Amino acid sequence: MTLPLLVGQRQPRHVLQIGLGAASLTRFLYRHCPTTHLTIVEIDDGVIMAARQFFKMPSDPQRITVIHEDGVSFMQRSHAHYDLILVDGFDSKAHAGLLESQVFYDDCRRRLDDHGWIAINLLGKSRGFQATVARFRHAFQNQTQILRPYPDGNVVALATVPALPSPNMIQWRAEAVHFKQDTGLNLAATLSRFEAS
Question: Considering 44, 45, 60, 88, which one is annotated as catalytic?
């Protein structure tokens, strides 16, 4: 889900994260994107407390805003715009619910700025996967890339407001080397999934 940092915007100004989980994305962005403001929307207050207590989520009100709310309702009432939206929200039964709806994807499209990117974690083995992908593509007018599934069935769907860049694998692989040196994160395998999709 961090691939847009490599192929899109290395230092987004404002990131919206829907679904907190163990705060791994939050910690990564906070550490490696020092000028980025993070807005995190999480429906489960227990997840927020666990992230703070057990998973070392940074506490920095200057750069991190945590909102205890359903992501769908937040998007419906929000008027803010974001450079990057990250969606990784599932309930205890691995259902995303309305986070896979056309209304939600349309709202995400409206909330992205002119150069914005979105990355969504989907479950490729779910029964309605193809319909979910169709809704995502409709919202972003087919400026999308669905990465090849990971072994566990997770699929990352990417989209951008401007035209999706044509893969420049030589340049991107060279940048991935620097990205790994800077952050410790190796995106080489993810680039292969992008290329093969």
Answer: 88
Higher pLDDT, 50 or 148: 50
User: Comparing 19 with 141, which gets the higher pLDDT?
Assistant: 19
Q: Are 26 and 38 in contact (CB under 8 A)?
A: yes
CATH number for the domain spanning 44: value is 3.40.50.150
Helix runs in 58-187, H state only: 71-77, 102-111, 129-139, 169-183
> Would you say residue 76 lies in a domain?
yes
Instruction: Give the domain extent around 140.
Output: 3-165
Q: Is 152 noted as a catalytic residue in this protein?
A: no
- The set of residues, in sequence order, having a beta carbon less than 8 Å from that of 18 and lying 6+ positions away, is 41, 42, 71, 74, 75, 85, 86, 87, 88, 89, 99
Residue type, 97: G
pLDDT at 124: 82
Q: What is the pLDDT of residues 10-63, one digit of tens each?
A: 899 999 999 999 999 999 999 999 999 999 999 999 999 999 999 999 999 999
What's the Cα-to-Cα distance from 29 to each of 33, 34, 37, 53, rounded to whole Å?
Answer: 5, 8, 9, 19
Helix (H, G, I), strand (E, B) or coil at 68: strand
